[in-house]
């Protein structure tokens, strides 16, 4: 269920009414303007009179506490600016955004990910920030090139990375100690990883499977493709063919045959990506695939100590990926202030200290340096240490996923589940996936 805040100091809630996402497309569009950017020193809004901005993001309680604290810090520096906030878990987030749109309450500042960034850009739902970057009202100079590129759609800056993350294997360190099985290693091959998972299953006498089945995990598949010189997308088309996808599915068929993974019904529980459903948290596997920035959330859900390493394959198959973006609604009445708030949240050292690594490594390298030593949460420290350990080995960032990416992700899950459940053969599921995926990208 969405969590909405009643007014707390300058922070409150932004309710909405449930309609369809299409309401976003019919929302009125207003004007844009200019504003001096903010730095680690002071922040000054150019707008006269009081300004109230609505902000919406997904995440847990801890993220909400830290984000609200950072927004309060902005208001302390800009007393004319106040905030109304809404937040909830990842499940149903975009439906809730559509609800707010239907009620005429589209937030001024929203958190989005690469599942919708290109679509929202092409449908002119989010504000084009290119001019603000050019005149440095929005300062991207401290971001790695990969993070700058990931927020750019067709040459236009449509979002600013709120954090940096990496594909990761999160594992139950306490369980592996108990079973006397070594921890998975970063950079191990996929064959070695599945052999390791099989060893875990055998050591536990089948009580715990070694790993979740990642056959429907687009992130794992994407990195597997890149480890072989491939890519998930080539422009607005799929970057792979039937042979590659069949090989991927067959890799996991062998893993299932060797009992490296649990049964299909259990795996499907974790397919939503919700932290509370991850099998490493529920104790049904020794490891799950996740984004590295999710480690703190996962750790809060279990008493077992969790560790993190890279997804199998060479570190160079990974890239500096945005965990999520801050974007402005194109129809906001206060574009100047929204841009200033984005700049504050992503370039201000004090804001960075407040936010920590809850959304991943801070996107800005100077802010990372500024906040170094201020992170006290052990899980955030482990996630940060993992990111730093391979920072110099990352490969080039691909372009943001094209419009239709969210549907493609869903189709991959469906294809994998149909194979796991015995409802379709590998070749039939692959053929159907490619047909539907290509149609989704062409729509």
From TrEMBL:
InterPro entries: Bact_solute-bd_prot1, SBP. Pfam families: SBP_bac_1 (PF01547). SUPFAM superfamilies: Periplasmic binding protein-like II. This is Extracellular solute-binding protein. It comes from Micromonospora profundi.
């Amino acid at each position: 269920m969405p969590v909405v805040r009643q007014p707390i100091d300058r922070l409150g809630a932004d309710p909405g009414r449930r309609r369809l996402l299409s309401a976003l497309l019919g929302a009125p569009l207003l004007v844009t303007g200019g504003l001096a950017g903010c730095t680690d020193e002071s922040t000054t809004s150019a707008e006269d009179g009081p300004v109230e901005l609505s902000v919406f993001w997904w995440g847990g309680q801890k993220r909400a506490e830290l984000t609200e604290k950072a927004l309060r810090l902005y208001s302390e520096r800009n007393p004319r600016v106040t905030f109304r906030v809404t937040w909830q878990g990842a499940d149903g987030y975009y439906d809730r955004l559509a609800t707010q749109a239907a009620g005429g309450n589209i937030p001024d500042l929203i958190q989005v990910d690469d599942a919708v960034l290109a679509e929202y850009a092409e449908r002119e739902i989010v504000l084009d920030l290119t001019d603000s970057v050019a005149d440095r009202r929005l300062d991207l100079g401290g971001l790695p090139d990969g993070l700058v590129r990931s927020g750019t759609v067709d040459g236009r800056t449509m979002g600013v990375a709120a954090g940096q993350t990496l594909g990761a294997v999160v594992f139950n360190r306490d369980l592996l100690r108990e079973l006397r099985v070594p921890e998975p290693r970063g950079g191990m091959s996929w064959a070695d990883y599945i052999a390791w998972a099989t060893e875990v299953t055998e050591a536990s006498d089948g009580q715990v499977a070694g790993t979740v089945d990642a056959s429907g995990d687009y992130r794992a598949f994407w990195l597997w493709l890149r480890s072989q010189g491939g890519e998930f997308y080539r422009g607005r088309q799929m970057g792979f063919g039937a042979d590659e996808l069949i090989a991927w599915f067959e890799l996991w068929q062998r893993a299932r045959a060797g009992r490296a993974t649990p049964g299909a019904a259990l795996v499907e529980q974790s397919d939503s990506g919700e932290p509370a459903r991850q099998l490493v948290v529920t104790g049904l596997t020794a490891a799950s695939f996740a984004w590295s920035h999710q480690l703190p959330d996962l750790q809060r859900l279990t008493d077992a100590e969790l560790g993190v390493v890279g997804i199998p394959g060479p570190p160079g198959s990974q890239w500096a990926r945005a965990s999520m973006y801050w974007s402005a609604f194109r129809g906001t009445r206060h574009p100047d202030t929204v841009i200033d708030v984005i700049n504050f949240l992503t370039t201000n050292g004090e804001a960075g200290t407040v936010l920590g690594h809850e959304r991943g490594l801070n996107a800005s390298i100077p802010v990372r340096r500024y906040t170094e030593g201020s992170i006290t949460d052990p899980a955030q420290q482990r996630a940060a240490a993992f990111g730093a350990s391979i920072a110099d080995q990352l490969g080039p960032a691909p372009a943001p996923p094209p419009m239709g990416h969210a549907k493609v992700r869903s189709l991959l899950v469906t294809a994998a589940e149909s194979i796991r459940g015995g409802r379709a053969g590998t070749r039939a599921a692959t053929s159907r996936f490619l047909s539907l995926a290509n149609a989704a990208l062409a729509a």
